[in-house]
Every structure is written in C-alpha cells, then in structure tokens.
Specification:
alpha/beta, globular, binds 5,6-dihydroxy-NADP, binds zinc ion
C-alpha cells in the first residue's frame, strides 16, 4: 500500500426528509446564495423543501447552471456574490450544479488575475466562500470531494481544492425519483467507472481498498438493472446513492495508484461532441482495458475473478470474458460502448487527439505512459 492522508470533512445527512436539516447547519447570520440548474428542483418539490428549511435565513438565488457548467454562466454568479455580500453557498442539484458552485466559491475569493487560471494554469486556490449542497443526482461524488469539472466553450478542465469541499451534503434518495431513466443510468455508470479508475491499475496489496472497490462494483452491477426495472424501489435508490458517494469521496483511492485516463479522454468527447459524461466513459473504458491490458494484467484477472466470478480458462481468456461482461453491463444500462454507437467515426479521432494535446493530456494512466499515440490506439479500439 502507498502512503496516504485521508480526511473527508463533509458531514452527510442521508435519507428521506433530511433536507430540513440544512436549517441548523447554515449559520443563522449567513447571507446565503442558493444555486441551481434548469428548474428540475421546482418541478419535483426540492426547491420548496429548501425554501421552507431556509425560512429564517436571509437568502437569494442563482439559477441556470447548465449540465457541464459553463465558465461564463458561473462568472455571473460571482458578480452576484460581490454585489450582495454573499457569505455562504448552497448548491441544489446534480454534479454540474455542485461543481459549478465549487468554482463560483473559489472564483469569488480568487486573488489572481483571471479566475479561469484556476483551471487552465492550475493557479492555487487559497480561499473560497463556504459551501454545502443538496444532491439530486447520484453519480459524480462531487457532494463530498474536492474536485470540480468546468467547461469553457469546448474545453473541459478540472481543478481540486480542499477549500471547495462541501461542508455538508444532504442525500435524500427520494429526490432522485424524478430523474429520467437516462440520468439514472448515467449515474450508475459514472460511479462504476470512478471505482474502476481507482481500482484497475496495478496491485499494491491494498486489501481494504480493493475489497471496498469490489463491493461497490458488485452493488452497482446488482442495483443498476434493478433501478431500471423497478424505478420506485427506494431501497435500490438508497444503495445506488450511497455507492456513488463512496466511489469518489477519497476512501477507495487512498493509498493506491489511480488511472483517470478514461475520464480525461471522455472529457474531450463531451467538450467536442456534447455526449453525456457517463456515456463517454462507457465508450472509452472497455477500449482502455484492451489497449492497457499488459499494464493492468494483474488487476484485470483479479477483477474478472472477484467481481464477475470468472475462474475457468487461461489468464487471457479470463480477461477477455471480463471485458465482454463489462460491455454487456454497460449495454444493459442503455449505454453506447463504441464511438459508432454515438454516431462518430474515424474522423473524430484526429480532433480528439489534438484536443488532448492542447489540454496537456499527454502522459495519462497510472504509469504516465499513455502518450497521445496510446490515446489514439484507445480511440481506435473504441471505433
Ligand atoms: O439542471 P436541472 O434542471 O437540475 O436538470 C438536471 C440536468 O439536466 C437533471 N437533474 C438533476 N437532478 C434531477 C434532475 N432531473 C430530475 N430530477 C432530479 N432529481 O439532470 C441533468 C444532468 O445533471 P448533471 O448535474 O449535469 O449530471 P451529473 O450529476 O451526472 O453531473 C455531470 C457533471 O459532473 C462532472 C461531469 O464532468 C459533468 O460536468 N463530474 C464531476 C466530478 C467531481 N466533481 O468529482 C467527477 C465526475 O467524474 C464528473 O466528471
Ligand atoms: Zn465521472
């Protein structure tokens, strides 16, 4: 196991009707800005629950944070914070609203020249407006981690800072009932791939992390098809929601090598072609498993045996079956698994590789050996 420091300070309120808990968590004298997206929270009653919990607080709102939140939109909220003297941010929505609010929190207190430098130049974030969230879409893990992914035009970049980790997160599985089937499936696959990016590298004998990861993968494989077949089952919803949080709250990634190449290549697919985040991952991950087979051999065999119970055959046969099972699971969840499933052909590969180069994504993977040539091979394997 590698050395690590693990600290996750986000307080979680999990379960039905927990939105009321925000009343006591936000300081009484705070000037709160509630941020949200395109209005789903007005249709499903979440906005009303938040309003009623904040009845004794002074608060205003900022709406219109879009999926794959755009820098220009977020900078409007930064202006509002400065104008109104906002001291606390409450994000109410999915990963995009939470990520967008993290950026707003950091940009409002940024002392450098251009807040975009936080993403493009890795400018250090030294302060941020305190923030918390009410999560409405289980997927990204953003509700209890330090990361955010922000888009400007076709460029999609990430930053991380402990200053933007939510102080608390409300996870009420009931509010996920209004999600479309597509968003529910996206969430399951995003959480699955987060787990894989921290698990499918090379063995370092980190038994706790490995067994936790395998548990999360098994849960998602089990509960994913169930949530599509019986969407009103609250127990299934609860297990998916908690799996997604645990998949990217720092726990399973502590003390192990991490990959993230699937995400970085996936971000280019979203930036260029607007494909949903999770759907890009379903296209890229199987191809990474094929192209990086030798680097990942030990963990691929472990994954095959422990997650899919595949024991018969040579090592290569076992790995082939595990990749096929992964693809079948993605397909059963309604995902595209090839570029062609998303109506893209070989012509897209040059574009995507050029974007990877422009964004400095030239040494991806757990060994840093995924050069642009290797990423090209991955995209070719995904055709
Ligand atoms: O805008 P509204 O009206 O809220 O509608 C949203 C949006 O259209 C809707 N939605 C959310 N909750 C709902 C709901 N509709 C009905 N009922 C509800 N309860 O769902 C749509 C998609 O929402 P979005 O927030 O974009 O989805 P998701 O949570 O999958 O977030 C994706 C974003 O997170 C980033 C992705 O890159 C992408 O930008 N990620 C962030 C990570 C992190 N911070 O750690 C890690 C991830 O890998 C990911 O990259
Ligand atoms: Zn993701």
């Amino acid at each position: 196991m590698l050395n690590f420091t693990f600290h996750n300070p986000t307080k979680i309120f999990f379960g039905e009707n927990q939105i009321a808990a925000i009343a006591k968590q936000i300081p009484a004298d705070a000037k709160v800005l509630v941020t949200y997206g395109g209005g789903s929270i007005k249709a499903n009653g979440v906005y009303d629950q938040v309003s009623s919990a904040l009845k004794d607080h002074q608060w205003s709102e900022f709406s219109g944070i879009e999926p794959n939140p755009q820098f220009d939109t977020l900078m409007k909220a930064v202006a509002q914070i400065k104008e109104q003297g906002i001291t606390y941010l409450l994000a109410v929505g999915g990963g995009s609203v939470v990520d967008g609010t993290k950026f707003i929190a950091a940009a409002a207190r940024f002392e450098g020249e251009q807040p975009w430098d936080i993403l493009a130049q890795h400018a250090k974030v030294t302060d941020a407006v305190p923030m918390a969230c009410v999560l409405t879409l289980p997927a990204t893990g953003s509700e209890s981690n330090t990361g955010a992914v922000i888009t400007r035009g076709t460029t999609k970049l990430a930053f991380m800072s402990p200053h933007v980790q939510p102080l608390f997160a409300v996870l009420d599985p009931k509010v996920t009932l209004s999600l479309s089937e597509r968003q529910v499936a996206n969430g399951v696959i995003d959480a699955f791939v987060h787990t894989m990016e921290q698990y499918l590298t090379f063995p370092v004998n980190a038994k706790v992390q490995d067994r936790f990861s395998e548990g999360l993968l098994l849960n998602l494989i089990e509960e994913g098809p169930k949530v599509l077949a019986t969407p009103d089952d609250m127990e299934v919803r609860s297990n998916i929601m908690w799996s997604a949080t645990m998949a990217l709250n720092g726990l399973i990634g502590s003390g192990v090598p991490q990959d993230w190449s699937t995400h970085m290549i996936g971000h280019e697919l979203t930036g260029q072609y607007g494909i949903d985040h999770a759907r890009t991952l379903a296209i890229v991950l199987p191809a990474v498993m094929k192209v990086q087979r030798e680097q990942k051999r030990g963990k691929l065999v472990q994954y095959a045996q422990r997650v899919w119970n595949i024991v018969d055959g040579t090592e290569d046969e076992i790995i082939d079956q595990a990749i096929a099972k992964t693809e079948a699971f993605f397909k059963a969840m309604g995902m595209p698994i090839r570029l062609s499933d998303a109506d893209l052909d070989a012509a897209s590969i040059d574009v995507l590789v050029a974007q990877l180069e422009e964004h400095g994504m030239t040494t991806l993977g757990e060994h840093g050996d995924m050069t642009l040539d290797v990423s090209r091979k991955v995209l070719e394997a995904a055709l």
